[in-house]
Amino acid sequence: MFVHLAVSTWRFDVGEDAVVTESRHGADPDEQLIRTLHREHAGPLLTYVMQLVDGDRQRAEYVVQETLLHAWRSGVTGPVRPWLVTVARRMVYGGAPPRLTAVDDQVGNVLRLMSASDAMEALSAEHRTVLTETYLRRRTVNEAAAALGLPPATVRTRIFYAMRSLKLALEERGVTTS
């Protein structure tokens, strides 16, 4: 996710190659450069990268942020946009993996569990019950059928439709299987 910073008291003069001059005294030139790079190139670069990653917005935002950061660290000179496009394309096709921390992993797991719990609540009581018996309590179809007082064929049918409904409910909440 991009963080847009307020720049209301600053005035930048930006050329085609993101050469920056700033009218406020004492401002950090590095900060000016990264702000200018973001303002001038993040939108078009995000549009381009979204096409490369088949619409995966989170991955595209990650690639754009890393590309802009790389440009800032490199002190790129000359035409900036072609350089940015090349770096972004290499990141996508070079398979630059996201650098996740343990906290990022934990937050992701919690969010997935919350989405799954929310999706389970959206199911009918019959579907929720058969999934609870079979997946959460780890009972076989025959054991779940005996516990619920239903024929095993009915339990299998309900599991099938419950899983289909659960998949749709998860997709509505932005959780995908890929």
UniProtKB/TrEMBL annotation:
Keywords: DNA-binding, Sigma factor, Transcription, Transcription regulation. InterPro entries: RNA_pol_sigma-70-like (IPR039425), RNA_pol_sigma70_r4 (IPR007630), RNA_pol_sigma_r2 (IPR013325), RNA_pol_sigma_r3/r4-like (IPR013324), WH-like_DNA-bd_sf (IPR036388). It comes from the Bacteria. Residues 119-167 form the RNA polymerase sigma-70 region domain. One of its GO terms (molecular function) is sigma factor activity. One of its GO terms (biological process) is DNA-templated transcription initiation. Belongs to the sigma-70 factor family. ECF subfamily. This is RNA polymerase subunit sigma. It comes from Actinacidiphila oryziradicis. The lineage of its organism: Bacteria, Bacillati, Actinomycetota, Actinomycetes, Kitasatosporales.
